Amino acid sequence: MKGLAQSLLALSILSSSVLAFDRPALVLQDGSATVGDIHRTQGPRPNIVFILVDDQDLQLGSLSYTPHINRYIRDQGIFYKNHFVTTALCCPSRVSLWTGKQAHNTNVTEIYPPYGGYPKFVTEGHNDNWLPLWLQDAGYNTYYTGKLFNSHTVDNYHSPFVRGFNSSDFALDPYTYQYLHPVYQRDQDDPVDYAGRHTIDVIRQKALGYLDDAIAESEDRPFFLTIAPIAPHSNFEMANDSDVTTFRFSAPIPLDRHRGWFPNAKVPRTANFNPDSPSGVNWIRTLPQQDQASIDSNDEFYRARLRALQGVDELVEDVIHALDSAAVLENTYIFYTSDNGYHIGQHRLHPGKECGFEEDIRVPMFIRGPGIPSGEEVEAPTTHIDLAPTIFEIAGIPLRDEFDGTAVPFEPGQDGRKEHVHVEYWGKAGFEGETSRMPNGGPVAFRNNTYKALRVLGDGYNLYYSVWCTNEHELYDLATDPHELTNLHPSANSTAEQLLGFPIEKVISRLDALLLVLKSCQGISCTKPWDVLHPAGDVQTLRDALADSFDVFYQSQVRVEYGWCEEGYILEAEGAQVPAVYQGTRWSDWW
Which backbone phi and psi does 12 adopt, to 5 degrees? Predict the structure, then answer.
């Protein structure tokens, strides 16, 4: 590997001779303008750097502690204020991101086999059909360093090797989350043990080395580089190297220079922080209120997360400086996001994710790059399954019919953009912090955490609707209840009679029908679900669907309902899959 300074100097001399290619301006499926309309239709193809962190929150204020990320990416690009993951768990979320598909279409729904992890990614055929391979076919050099998927281990990394990268250097389980004992595996080499070195120092060296290599080759081929540090995920402690069954999670470990930072930081005391009355449904509603010792412990856990993020924040600055020194920054798109969000104390939850609340599913998401305005914010809802189509659009590649998402907008405004997000989850939920202080003991892992959910953000409405495998329901109006404390669904003994100016059952019937389509959607039915219910195309939004003329149709519609709880995507347990279709004054079963 060449020295960084030498490569950057060489590229600064060669940058004027980068090859051009003809690339037509693209238009999104909804007809809105894309980056193809904004920047050059001829010229050097843009490079892409994708920074994917692990478990960073948006709702808990972590971005107030990351000045470099804000300065170099957020303030120089677009902040997607309503960006959601479609599964609030590491591995399924990452597979959805890199394939552009909902988890019910990837069938990777957990972090461990048999329902998830790297082995499931392979057996489902994704190792032969995913973003890095598509980019290589389109003429890109591709590189990756850091965490890829859970259950990608020192024992199975070669069974088979990950496909799609010119070079890769992956953090491997069971050492992925061991901040002071990482193990990395490069290309087809044996794993290398970095015991005693901090994982952020290790990935910084590898990321800048790959950036050096990528820039040196970019005269002929643009590059796609993913940098995936584990911060601010919890630290993983094993009893010993030979026993992976005996472990515990503890607070993330910062670099030595960041220890003791932010001594007065606390989890934001929002209305849903450790509420006096239980909230949510299912196991969440059974949680005891945290005592002061637990609150103090969780505040310290929160501070540890902020400290661990400082190494990522510094890494972002290093990447920007390297790109700028090589004179390629202005032709490089930089993405920054997290695989899922995080909760600490909200709804009485101890540290973790896996729920459908805003803290878990809403994540930081920024893009800067050629033609993207600086300091703008997009209100329209976007998701991780939109990112592979976005990268295709940037690279000038025709979108694939199998994509369940569409490219994100590169300017403010929602005109014609989808207003829905489908969230789904299967299996367990658990806590990662210090839970031994929970009153009366209590479990740290919970079963039957399987649910389908829907976020709808449109003209005058901001709603969350979910159906659990226990057939419990949630309905929150986030316009009036942003912390999701008041379940408006009649099954929760709510006294609410109206929502959005309509009878509440009328709104629920539309939301449930929309969720019925999305829970098994594929391709265009994921982006245009109303067209499934209304093939005439006269309904495109929740507001349209609330017309009185559709009341009988929606009252008669089949409902979302589980047969029983499963820990993976078992179709027989998922209930009805096929909605009825509106046909004027008549309706019939659709397929």
Answer: -65, -30
Three-class SS string for 436-497?
A: CCCCCCCCCEECCCCEEEEEEEECCEEEEEEEECCCCEEEEECCCCCCCCCCCCHHHCCCCC
For residue range 483-542, list pLDDT tens digits in order: 999 999 999 999 999 999 999 999 999 999 999 999 999 999 999 999 999 999 999 999
**The one catalytic residue among 90, 91, 355, 521:** 90
90 is catalytic: yes
- 3 state DSSP class of 204: helix
Contacts of 301 (CB under 8 A, 6+ apart): 251, 344, 351, 433, 434
Q: How far is it, in rounded angstroms, from Cα 466 to Cα 451? A: 7
pLDDT digits over 40-89, tens only? Answer: 445 789 999 999 999 999 999 999 999 999 999 999 999 999 999 999 99
3-class DSSP state of 170: strand
Nearest to 223 by CA among 50, 97, 370, 398: 50
- DSSP code string of 489-535: SGGGT----EETTEEHHHHHHHHHHHHHHHTT--THHHH-HHHHH-T
Distance CA 370, CA 47 (A): 10
In this structure, how many other beta carbons lie within 10 angstroms of the beta carbon of residue 196?
A: 7
Compute the distance between CA of residue 225 and CA of residue 326 in angstroms, rounded to an integer.
Answer: 16
pLDDT confidence bin for 22, thresholds 50/70/90: very low
**Given pLDDT bands bounded at 50, 70 and 90, which one contains residue 435?**
low
Question: Crossing angle for the helix pair 4-14 and 292-325, nearest 10 degrees?
Answer: 50
Token code pair at residue 400:
């694939």
CB 461 within 8 A of CB 123: no
Taking CA atoms, 546 is separated from 505, 509, 525, in Å, by: 11, 9, 20
Q: What is the pLDDT of residues 289-333, one digit of tens each?
A: 999 999 999 999 999 999 999 999 999 999 999 999 999 999 999
Could you give the C-alpha distances from 167 to 222, 501, 567, in angstroms and in order? 14, 56, 35
178 token code pair: 């061991």
CATH number of 4-414: 3.40.720.10
Residue spans of the domains in the chain: they are 4-414, 450-589
